[in-house]
Design the sequence.
């Protein structure tokens, strides 16, 4: 089904090209909308065209007022130079922009030409805006062990002129061990940003390495006299443009249908994300070459490669083409693709589709990963001991955000994590690995080709891969839960809850199987086969749930007890979201707020009505949503129906035909 494709891709791809492109892209140091991004975007357009692929750069407004699907691209920021020095009790240069551009916090405001001299105050740990007094640090610089963005609001309120941070591991990163310590990379400088919106009072920021921070803190701790710093910043923040590179390989008979590749160009690392952008270049070249010379049949669907700032930069393009979303059948997220695990640690991770929009793409990607892992190492590198460890994890987000049911573009993300040098000056081109890049290219290019050429035959296969994927997941889940329960004092209640949870997972498997239908929606035989497979899958998972419940003393005697939606009065109305994120209750009309408060009271204190929102996708009836909410605290069917009717009256969802 695919091995001849993967074999052709491996023979054609040139990882040396990818390495050179990564080095050139990294040299642009793209961070936020500004000169670095403009340069990187122009380079991508040039290289796509050299690779025989059409490409253009689309410029969108970079400001803090224009909204695209509820998000902003951010203002343009132009840095020119910066310097941070100790002036008392001794003279010492701490960092310079010319030595390491990431020492300057993105969206820093400029200082007067002669710089700003100020005393240092130290405040470590979490710092909320309400935790400081207005003007308490007026005219001073704040030294913190937190990322500048985390303390920005407090620093502004307290009147600080600048923020100096020696943080090497932001709090959210520390929640995903291993925790990066200063000793892991003493000269690592974090890449950080401020909010990127206009403020009445200026604020600049500097990032110090662990070594630089330790030197400054030692001087402050000596306490002989106040430590004073001088900061000089030349930069400007203004309304400008945010780049979106759009490259495409046109399809043939199904050219109006598309497969998207999203790789952000807004981060300054070689892995994150020069590797994603530049692997896309090579994937495009390989697809164009193999289909042009007849090695592989031509693509039926258009494959489109998009590059912009992470998440927010894609929103203008998406917003302008909302009517076209149904024709985008799937996507692929390229982010942090080229890790050398002996240097940076980590593994390859396949982040799965979101719970609320399960997809066949997970099973397909797992199949391709296993096939690529089985390929001999010499097909990718001369380093015979290179490894390609991998595992799966639940949905993360990043540019795979289009997997959400609002967009409904299933977009797997195969990346590397954790990374010792994530978001820092130490993420450099010399750390790229041929084996990792080569296997990523083999997997991702084969994935694109299969989806761009798929018909009913391939869709049947996708459906069976989805069924097998979810059978494996449910078997592992059941094994883990039974082992834990039987190690203690199991109860019938645990058995019933386990059966409900298995049913919840099984419904995601049903969704994943059904999604394969989009590749030949008018084929009646395919529809019949996939729906038969869904019924067989339901029955098998009902048996699994019954046995699991029985092991804990509970009795589930029929599939209807596991999948009860067929036993209740059908509420067949189907709704689609009209906005991406659920607005706050306060945005509703006064009448809507009153009705919603009544519904929340009616649902009960334990029922969280906000859980309904992500399951609204334009494909599920009210009853089907109710069935998928039984695990984690059931919400009564009439309450869900009334809640969605209320949101429809408020214009947040719309009734649609299935």
Sequence:
């Amino acid at each position: 089904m695919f091995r001849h494709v993967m074999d052709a891709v491996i023979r054609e791809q040139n990882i040396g090209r990818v390495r050179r492109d990564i080095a050139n892209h990294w040299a642009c140091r793209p961070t936020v909308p500004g000169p670095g991004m403009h340069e990187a975007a122009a380079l991508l357009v040039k290289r796509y065209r050299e690779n025989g692929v059409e490409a253009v750069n689309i410029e969108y407004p970079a400001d803090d007022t224009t909204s695209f699907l509820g998000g902003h691209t951010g203002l343009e920021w132009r840095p020119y130079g910066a310097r941070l020095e100790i002036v008392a009790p001794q003279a010492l240069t701490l960092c310079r922009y010319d030595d390491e551009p990431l020492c300057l916090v993105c969206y820093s405001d400029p200082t007067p030409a002669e710089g700003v001299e100020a005393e240092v105050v130290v405040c470590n740990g979490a710092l909320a805006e309400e935790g400081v007094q207005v003007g308490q640090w007026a005219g001073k610089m704040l030294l913190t062990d937190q990322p500048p963005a985390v303390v920005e609001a407090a620093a502004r309120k307290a009147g600080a002129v600048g923020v100096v941070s020696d943080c090497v591991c932001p709090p959210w990163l520390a929640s995903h061990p291993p925790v990066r310590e200063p000793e892991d990379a003493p000269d690592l400088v974090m890449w950080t940003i401020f909010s990127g919106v206009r403020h009445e009072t200026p604020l600049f920021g500097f990032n110090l390495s662990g070594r630089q921070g330790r030197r400054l803190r030692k001087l402050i701790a000596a306490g002989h006299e106040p430590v004073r710093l001088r900061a000089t910043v030349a930069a400007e923040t203004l309304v400008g443009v945010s780049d979106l590179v759009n490259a495409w390989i046109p399809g043939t008979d199904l050219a109006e249908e598309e497969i998207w590749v999203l790789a952000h160009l807004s981060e300054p690392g070689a892995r994150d994300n020069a590797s994603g952008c530049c692997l896309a270049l090579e994937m495009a070249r390989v697809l164009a070459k193999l289909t042009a010379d007849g090695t592989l049949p031509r693509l039926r669907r258009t494959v489109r490669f998009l590059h912009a700032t992470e998440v927010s930069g894609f929103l203008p393009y998406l917003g302008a083409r909302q009517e076209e979303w149904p024709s985008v059948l799937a996507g692929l997220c390229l982010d942090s693709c080229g890790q050398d695990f002996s240097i940076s640690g980590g593994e390859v991770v396949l982040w799965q589709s979101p719970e609320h929009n399960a997809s066949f793409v997970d099973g397909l990607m797992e199949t391709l990963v296993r096939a690529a892992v089985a390929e001999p190492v010499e097909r990718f590198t001369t380093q015979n001991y290179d490894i390609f460890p991998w595992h799966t994890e639940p949905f993360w987000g990043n540019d795979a955000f289009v997997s959400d049911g609002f967009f409904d573009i299933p977009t797997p993300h195969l990346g590397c994590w954790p990374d010792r040098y994530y978001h820092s000056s130490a993420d450099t081109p010399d750390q790229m690995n041929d084996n990792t890049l080569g296997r990523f290219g083999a997997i991702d290019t084969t994935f694109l080709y299969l989806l761009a050429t798929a018909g009913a035959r391939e869709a049947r296969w996708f459906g069976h891969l989805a069924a097998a994927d979810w059978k494996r997941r449910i078997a592992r889940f059941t094994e883990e839960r039974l082992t834990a329960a039987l190690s203690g004092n199991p109860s019938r209640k645990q058995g019933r809850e386990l059966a409900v949870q298995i049913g919840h997972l099984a419904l995601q498997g049903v969704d994943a199987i059904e999604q394969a239908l989009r590749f030949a929606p008018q084929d009646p035989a395919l529809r019949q086969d996939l729906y038969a497979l869904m019924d067989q899958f339901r029955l098998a998972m009902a048996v699994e749930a019954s046995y699991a419940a029985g092991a804990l003393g509970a009795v589930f005697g029929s599939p209807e007890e596991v999948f009860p939606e067929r036993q209740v009065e059908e509420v067949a109305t189907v709704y689609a979201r009209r906005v991406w994120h659920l607005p706050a209750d306060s945005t509703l009309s006064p009448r809507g707020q009153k009705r919603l408060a009544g519904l929340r009271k009616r649902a009960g204190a334990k029922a969280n009505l906000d859980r309904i929102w992500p399951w609204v996708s334009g494909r599920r009836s009210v009853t089907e949503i109710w069935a998928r909410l039984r695990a984690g605290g059931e919400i009564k069917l009439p309450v869900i129906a009334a809640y969605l009717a209320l949101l429809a009256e408020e214009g947040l969802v719309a009734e649609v035909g299935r």
